[in-house]
């Protein structure tokens, strides 16, 4: 990926697919090792192969199939598959439009001239709504359209990829319902194992948050070719602390949740964009090894040829 200087979208897709295969491999080994050691029984290869492509991260020898649950013909509904894949393409085009129309014009000249605090705040606020829309499109693209397309092609019956996270009144509930696939994997193979090994539930919860944040930071860092751990800070630290908040009223909590999601996404997009373009437009003022870990957007000196 780095050797061939792959573009952002290709890099992100490749990294996500690598993480997916790693999570599935761990799930397969973790689920079958106790049985293999005790009984010498291992699942057939076709079960492993089906699991690697099925829209789930928790391994099982048997999954519900659509023909078994509904009594319908086992034939794949290819029109439905095509419809979901068209939704994926439409979401990708809309995300591209939002980024090019509302994000790039604001940040691509970052570092070429001094930026006042008021201009910086205005830039961040102007991207709050587009960033929230990108988040919603990404959710629909991945957790609805993409996974339902694969579920239909494989006649996979369990299609509860998410719950009604948009109605939740706390961050703890949002984390459990936003992405059921990831939540189930973290609970089955991280949270439960930490508790079984003698760890407290609080320690298990903290490990789940920090591990998830580290993976998200890995994806963003290698996609953008920079180290700027704002995802880890927002998700692993701020998100972990906010998971203990209880607003009492579901309506108040839901409003607070939506505001936090949109503002948080706006901040993430803005901070990463500022750092990325600072590394394009600002001079390197320290040695290359330390420059990888020190944000250049904090002390930007414009490159002379671009001023």
From TrEMBL:
<feature type="transmembrane region" description="Helical">
    <location>
        <begin position="44"/>
        <end position="60"/>
    </location>
</feature>
<dbReference type="GO" id="GO:0005789">
    <property type="term" value="C:endoplasmic reticulum membrane"/>
</dbReference>
<keyword id="KW-0812">Transmembrane</keyword>
<feature type="transmembrane region" description="Helical">
    <location>
        <begin position="120"/>
        <end position="143"/>
    </location>
</feature>
<keyword id="KW-0472">Membrane</keyword>
<feature type="transmembrane region" description="Helical">
    <location>
        <begin position="194"/>
        <end position="214"/>
    </location>
</feature>
<dbReference type="InterPro" id="IPR004299">
    <property type="entry name" value="MBOAT_fam"/>
</dbReference>
<keyword id="KW-0012">Acyltransferase</keyword>
<dbReference type="GO" id="GO:0008374">
    <property type="term" value="F:O-acyltransferase activity"/>
</dbReference>
<feature type="active site">
    <location>
        <position position="216"/>
    </location>
</feature>
<feature type="transmembrane region" description="Helical">
    <location>
        <begin position="255"/>
        <end position="274"/>
    </location>
</feature>
<dbReference type="GO" id="GO:0008203">
    <property type="term" value="P:cholesterol metabolic process"/>
</dbReference>
<feature type="transmembrane region" description="Helical">
    <location>
        <begin position="80"/>
        <end position="99"/>
    </location>
</feature>
<dbReference type="InterPro" id="IPR014371">
    <property type="entry name" value="Oat_ACAT_DAG_ARE"/>
</dbReference>
<dbReference type="Pfam" id="PF03062">
    <property type="entry name" value="MBOAT"/>
</dbReference>
<comment type="similarity">
    <text>Belongs to the membrane-bound acyltransferase family. Sterol o-acyltransferase subfamily.</text>
</comment>
<protein>
    <submittedName>
        <fullName>Sterol O-acyltransferase 1-like</fullName>
    </submittedName>
</protein>
<keyword id="KW-1133">Transmembrane helix</keyword>
<feature type="transmembrane region" description="Helical">
    <location>
        <begin position="226"/>
        <end position="249"/>
    </location>
</feature>
<keyword id="KW-0256">Endoplasmic reticulum</keyword>
<keyword id="KW-0808">Transferase</keyword>
């Amino acid at each position: 990926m780095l050797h061939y200087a792959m573009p952002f979208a290709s890099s992100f897709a490749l990294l996500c697919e690598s993480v997916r295969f790693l999570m599935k491999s761990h799930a397969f080994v973790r689920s079958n090792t106790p049985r293999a050691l005790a009984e010498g029984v291992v699942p057939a290869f076709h079960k492993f192969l089906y699991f690697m492509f099925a829209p789930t991260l928790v391994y099982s020898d048997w999954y519900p199939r659509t023909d078994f649950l509904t009594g319908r013909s086992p034939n794949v509904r290819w029109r439905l598959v095509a419809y979901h894949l068209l939704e994926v393409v439409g979401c990708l085009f809309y995300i591209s439009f939002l980024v090019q129309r509302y994000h790039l014009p604001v940040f691509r000249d970052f570092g070429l001239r001094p930026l006042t605090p008021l201009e910086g705040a205005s830039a961040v606020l102007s991207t709050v709504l587009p960033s929230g829309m990108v988040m919603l499109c990404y959710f629909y693209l991945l957790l609805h359209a993409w996974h339902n397309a694969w579920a239909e092609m494989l006649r996979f019956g369990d299609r509860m990829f998410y719950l009604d996270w948009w109605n939740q009144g706390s961050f703890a509930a949002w984390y459990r319902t936003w992405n059921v696939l990831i939540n189930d994997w973290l609970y089955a193979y991280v949270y439960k194992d930490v508790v079984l090994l003698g760890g407290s539930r609080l320690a298990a919860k903290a490990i789940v948050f920090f591990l998830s944040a580290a993976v998200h930071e890995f994806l963003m860092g290698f996609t953008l070719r920079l180290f700027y751990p704002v995802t880890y800070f927002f998700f692993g630290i701020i998100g972990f602390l906010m998971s203990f908040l209880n607003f009492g009223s579901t309506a108040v909590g839901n409003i607070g949740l939506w505001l936090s999601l949109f503002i948080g996404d706006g901040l993430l997009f803005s901070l990463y964009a500022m750092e990325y373009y600072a590394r394009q437009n600002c001079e390197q003022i320290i040695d290359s090894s330390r420059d990888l870990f020190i944000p250049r957007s904090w002390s930007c000196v414009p490159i002379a040829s671009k001023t």
